[in-house]
Amino acid sequence: MFDNRRYVIILIMILVATAMAAKLFYIQIIDEEYKLSAESNSRREVVQYPSRGLIFDRNGKLLVSNQAVYDIMIVLREVHEFDSLDFCRTVEIDMPTLRGLFADLREKIRYRKASSYKPSVFIKQLSEERFSMLQEKLFKMPGFYAQRRTLRKYEYPSAALVLGYVSEISENMIRDTVINKDSYYSQGDYIGISGIERSFEKTLRGKKGINYIMVDVHGRTKGEFHDGELDEAAISGKDLTLSLDIDLQQYGEKLMQGKTGSIVAIRPQTGEILAMVSAPSYDPSLLVGRLRSVNFPILSNDPQKPLFNRAIQAQYPPGSTFKTINALIGLQEGIVTPESRFPCHAGYTIGRFHLGCHSHASPLDLRQSIQHSCNGYYCYEFRSFLDSPKYGSSHKALNIWRDYLVKFGLGYRLGIDIANEKRGLVPNAEYYDKYKGKNWNSLGVISLSIGQGELLLTPIQLANQAATIANQGWFYTPHIVHKIEDGEIDSLYLTKRYTGIDSTYFSVIKDGMEAAVWAGDGGTAHGAQIPDIRVCGKTGTAQNPHGKDHSIFMAFAPKESPEIAISVYVENAGFGATWAVPIGSLMIEKYIKGEINPQRKWVEDRIIQAKLNGTE
Q: Cα 495 to chain center, whole Å?
C-alpha cells in the first residue's frame, strides 16, 4: 500500500517536472512574446511622422506645402534640475505655464494616462526657429528631447473651404477609424478635418516610420537598438493636382468681398471645378498650429459663418434659372414646341389666383420666354404638363417631372470629391401628399414652374445645370482633383451622365440664353455682355422669406465649344441682373481672356467696392 502511494507521488512529480520543462522550452525557444516583451522594456519607439502630400493648382502653382515644427517630449523619470527660467524664455512661455505643464503631466501619470518612464508630449508645435535656439541647450536638460513633425503651410490666403484644414485627432475620431478598420492613428496624430484634406486623407497622410532606441532600466538613451535594423522609414504622402485655377479663385474671392454667397465655375467638357468661392471665407493659415486653438472658436462663433461652404452646403430656390429645365422637359414630353406661345398679362391669372411678372411683349415663343424670363409662359407650360391626360393624374406627372430632375443631378448629392455636400430638395408627389393632403392639384404647386416653392438647389448643382446645357444633355460629375501622384482619380468622374433629354432640344434653350444677354430688343442678362465672347446666360431672383431676394445668375461661354460654366448667388442682394450677372461675366472674362477689358473696369470697380452683407 505504501509502495503504491510512493509510485503515485513519483509519477506526479515526474509529470509536473515534465510540464514545467515543456513550458520553459516553449517560452524560451518557441514563443517570441516574452522575448519581445523583454526587448520592449529595453527599447523606446520613436515615431517618424511623414510629410503630407503637396497640393498644386491646375497650372502647377503650389497651394499647400509643409513646414517643420517640433514637439518637446519629456521622460519625467530622467528630469533633473535645469535652468527653468532660460527654458521658459527659449520656448516663449512663463513660469506659471511651466508649472502647470508639470502638474498636468503628474496628473496623467497618477491616472495612468502617461508614464514617468516613457516619453510624453510636453510642449506642442515649437517653431523651427525656437527649436534651433532650444536645441543648443538640450544637453543641459536631461529628460527632454524633440520629435519632428510637419504642419501645413498655405501659400495663398485663399480657397480655405476647398482645401480644408488639419487638426489633432480626437479620441472619438480614433474610435471611429478603428470601427472602420483603420488602425493608422494614435493619440496626438493629425488628420484632415474638412475639404480636400479630409476627402483625400489616406492619399495625403503617407505612412509613419519608426526608430527604435536602446534604453537602460531607467529609460536613459543608450543608442540605436540592433544597429537600426528594425527601423522603418516614413513614406511621404502622395501629391495632388487640383483642377482649381488659383488666380481665378482669388479673383472670385475679391469680387465677393463684402458679400454673402458663392461662385462655382466648372469646365463643361471635363466636369473639373475651376473655382469654388464661398463668401465670407477666411485665410487658411489661421487654422494652422498653435493659432488654431485661438482662431477656430472665433470663426465658429462668427455670425457670418465663414466656416460654412455655401458652394456645396447652402440650399436655395433656383428662381428663374430653373425655367430652362422646365422648358427642356416640356420639349422632351411633347408639351411644347419651340414655336409654342402663351400669353402673359403682367403674370399668370386664373380665378382669384395671380402670379406676377415684369412688363414685356406678349405672347412669347419659347426662345423669347427665356430671353425675357416670362413667368406666365412657364405657369401655362407647367400646368399643361401636370394636367396632361397622357399621365393619368398630376401625381404621376409630377413624379415623371422629378425623375428628369434627378437625371440632371438634382435632389441628391452629385458626389463631388469634397466632403459635406448637401443634396437640395426636389419634391415628389408623396411629399405633397404628406404636407398638402392627397387632393392637391397643379395650381397648388405652380410655384415650381418658376423655380420657387419647395424646390432647393445648391450652387454647385446650378453650375452643373449650366454645364449640362452647354454640353447639350450630359455632364461629368463635378470634381476638383485633377491628378493623383502614382494614382488615378475615381472612375465616377470619368463617366458621362445623361439627362434623358434629346440633344436637339438644347439648341433653342441656348438661343434663348444667348438672347437674354445679346438680343437688341432687350434681355434680362444684357449686363453679361463681353466683347468677342458669346455668353449664354439666365438670371434668377429667388424669394427669400428672411429678407431681401437672392440675386442669381447661371451662364456658360462661349456659346460654341464652351470653356466655362458658372453659377453666382449673392444673398439678399435683389435682382439677378444687378449683382450676380456682372460678377459672373467678370469671372468668365477673367478665365477666358486672363484680364478685364479696360472699358469694363468700371463694372469691376463697382462690384469690388459694393458691401452687401453689412460689412465695412
A: 21
b/e sequence 559-586, b meaning 16+ C-beta within 10 Å: beebbbbbbbbbbbbebbbbbbbbbbbb
Cβ count near 357 (within 10 Å): 21
Contacts 24+ apart (CB under 8 A), 502-507: 502/331, 502/332, 502/473, 503/472, 503/473, 505/328, 505/331, 505/332, 506/328, 506/469, 506/472, 506/473, 507/472
Residue 1 burial (CB < 10 Å; 0-12/13-18/19+)?
Answer: exposed
What is 246-609's CATH number?
3.40.710.10
Spatial separation of the C-alpha atoms in residues 361 and 515, rounded to whole Å: 15
* pLDDT computed for residue 175 by the predictor: 82
| Every domain of the chain and the residues it spans | 45-242, 246-609
Give the predicted TM-score (pTM) of the model.
0.88
Task: Name beta bridge partners: 266.
Answer: 273, 565
pLDDT per position as a tens digit, 82-131: 999 999 999 999 999 999 999 999 998 888 888 887 788 899 888 888 88
Q: Which residues pair with 224 in a beta bridge?
A: 213
Whether the per-residue pLDDT at 37 is higher than 60: the answer is no
pLDDT per position as a tens digit, 174-221: 888 767 778 888 888 889 999 999 999 999 999 988 888 776 655 556
What contacts 24+ positions apart, CB below 8 Å, involve 571-575? 571/259, 571/260, 571/261, 571/544, 571/613, 572/260, 572/544, 572/547, 572/548, 572/612, 572/613, 573/259, 573/261, 573/548, 573/549, 573/612, 574/541, 574/548, 574/549, 575/539, 575/541, 575/549, 575/551
Contact present, 451 and 323 (Cβ < 8 Å): yes
Residues in the chain: 616
β 240-242/221-224 pair status: unpaired
Per the CB < 8 A criterion, the answer to whether 476 and 267 are in contact is no
Residue 583's pLDDT is what?
A: 97
Query: 407-420: per-residue pLDDT in tens?
Result: 999 999 999 999 99
Contact between 371 and 524 (Cβ < 8 Å): yes
With 70 as the cut, is the pLDDT of residue 26 above it?
A: no
The CATH fold assigned to 45-242 is Penicillin-binding protein 2a (Domain 2) (3.90.1310)
